[in-house]
């Protein structure tokens, strides 16, 4: 390497000069792509980002090692990692959805006597509780913020997947946990996409068929109000 090359490699930008770090910019582009879909293949990510597959793979390996990306061992596809989800949850707590849901959850819990929840989807298999108002009853469903919920075996997972059905809500009994019944509805965002789910959960022994219908009506009303506030 000649003197000029050494000088260029060791040069420092002038004060006030803004020079983007190419690797960071590329990594952020890949993170944005991971956020836009539940999972993507390496070739899809490379094509969408305009990067050579080898470069995309090197950056994805770094993101995976740091917990910001996750690779499916069976398919090899990539999805958002746990640290990216945590960062997203932290940011979402400061958005209108998180703030607007609190009074809705209070009304749902008060109107049903059971625990009310706000959930969001984090990947193909998992949803999580973003906000919870626990029932004041001595025997109640104990939920907590950040709890992982399988999409396929929960009412919130079903509605987040778009399977609300003709009634507009989903009722599930004794699936994830014994003696627990859940009723859930989707919440629509400004782009008419499902952005969250509202649910009411409680002990199965005291929730009748009439109760589930009542809960469904309560949830639909609050979901419509929340969607309107979000521009949906």
Structural commentary:
The structure is a single chain. The protein is α+β, with helices and mostly antiparallel strands. It has two domains: 17-79, Arc Repressor Mutant, subunit A, CATH 1.10.10.10; 93-230, Beta-Lactamase (2-Layer Sandwich), CATH 3.30.450.40. 43% of the residues lie in helices and 20% in strands. The chain has eight helices and eight strands, in the order ααααββααβββαβββα. The protein has helices at residues 3-9, 22-36, 42-49, 53-66, 82-92, 96-112, 155-160, 209-230, and strands at 69-71, 78-80, 115-121, 126-133, 148-150, 170-173, 180-188, 194-203. The strands form two sheets. The protein has a six-stranded antiparallel sheet with strand order 5-4-3-8-7-6. It has a two-stranded antiparallel sheet with strand order 1-2. β7 (180-188) and β8 (194-203) form a beta hairpin. Mean pLDDT is 83; it is low at 1-19.
